[in-house]
């Protein structure tokens, strides 16, 4: 059985790591380069770096900061935010990223998924999907959750897979930053309907939430931010607990 992955997420704004609740009310969480080095040392399986204001500000991801972070890492490194072309991805991979995460640009230009998969391989392409449950329907949102669309989470996820994405990072906007647990029902459905790995995001508050998303949500990986940034959960404690619960993890 494949090991389940624990992935800290660095949400970057103005060169600093930030964290909010339901995508708003951001507060400072530290220097991204220092945090990256600490996570690599403390047993994180991967690291995700999201330049959360790049799309809204219509600019590319901070390539120099990506390079500085990558130099601290010996684990897979995914970078997202403001990516809209093959050229953007080429720059980030040359600066040390292993994978890229696209979100708004994939919805606006779905062919981009195909282009990136053909050029760099599907294992390099993570499609991030931010969705909110509105009247029982999971609606996809863009630009850091600010722009609602008519897209259905599950239909879009299937299209993403068919176009060559290697992984999906699903964030429940309803759960983000609440520390009330992941959207396990939606995650389980995604895992059942798709053949590519699903990363759970949004809602981690305690170790039990991680266990639940692997067992009930059938997630392949769990991503979290504030519980790691503010030292509420140690990755070593989390992994030991998961292992004791019969969940395969890399110790």
Task: Offer a few descriptive terms.
28% strand; alpha/beta; 12 strands; TIM Barrel; 251 residues; globular
In short:
With 251 residues, this protein is α/β, with parallel strands linked by helices. It contains ten helices and twelve strands.
Word description of this protein:
This protein is of the alpha/beta class. The chain has a single domain, classed as Alpha-Beta Barrel (TIM Barrel). 34% of the residues lie in helices and 28% in strands. The chain has an 8-stranded parallel β-barrel, surrounded by 6 helices. Helix 7 links the parallel strand 10 and strand 11. Helix 1 packs parallel to helix 2. The mean pLDDT is 91.
- Please give the order of strands in the largest beta sheet: 1-4-5-6-7-10-11-12
Q: Helical region count?
A: 10
Name of the CATH class: Alpha Beta
CATH topology: TIM Barrel
CATH superfamily: Aldolase class I
> How would you spell out the order of helices and strands?
EEEHEHEHEHHEEEHEHEHEHH
Helix content: 25-40%
**Most strands sheet:** 8 strands, parallel, barrel
Averaging pLDDT over every residue, what do you get? 91
Structural class: alpha/beta
CATH-defined architecture: Alpha-Beta Barrel
Model regions low in confidence, pLDDT < 50 over at least 5 residues = none
Q: Give the N-terminus to C-terminus distance in angstroms.
A: 15 Å
What shape does the CA trace take? globular
Q: How many strands appear in the DSSP assignment?
A: 12
Computed CA radius of gyration, to the nearest angstrom:
16 Å
Number of domains: 1
How much strand content do the residues show?
Answer: 25-35%
């Amino acid at each position: 059985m494949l090991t389940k992955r624990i992935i800290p997420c660095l949400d970057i704004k103005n060169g600093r790591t930030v964290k909010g609740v339901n995508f708003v009310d951001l507060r400072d969480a530290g220097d991204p380069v220092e945090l990256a080095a600490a996570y690599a040392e403390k047993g994180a399986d991967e690291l995700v770096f999201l330049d959360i204001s790049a799309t809204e500000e219509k600019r590319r991801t901070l390539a120099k900061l990506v390079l500085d972070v990558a130099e601290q890492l010996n684990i897979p490194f995914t970078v997202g935010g403001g990516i809209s072309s093959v050229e953007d991805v080429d720059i980030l991979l040359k600066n040390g990223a292993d994978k890229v995460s696209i979100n708004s640009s994939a919805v606006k230009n779905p062919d981009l998924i195909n282009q990136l998969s053909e050029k760099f391989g599907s294992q390099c392409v993570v499609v991030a999907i931010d969705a909110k449950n509105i009247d029982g329907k999971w609606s996809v949102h863009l630009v850091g959750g600010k722009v609602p669309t008519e897209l259905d989470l599950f239909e879009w996820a299937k299209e993403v897979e068919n176009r060559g994405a290697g992984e999906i990072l699903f964030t429940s906007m309803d759960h983000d930053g609440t520390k009330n647990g992941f959207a396990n029902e939606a995650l389980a459905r995604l895992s059942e309907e798709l053949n590519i790995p699903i990363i759970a995001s949004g809602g981690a508050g305690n170790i039990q939430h991680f266990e639940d998303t692997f067992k009930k949500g059938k997630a392949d990986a769990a991503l979290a931010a504030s519980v790691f940034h503010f030292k509420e959960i140690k990755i070593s404690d989390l992994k030991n607990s998961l292992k004791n619960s019969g969940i395969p993890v890399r110790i």
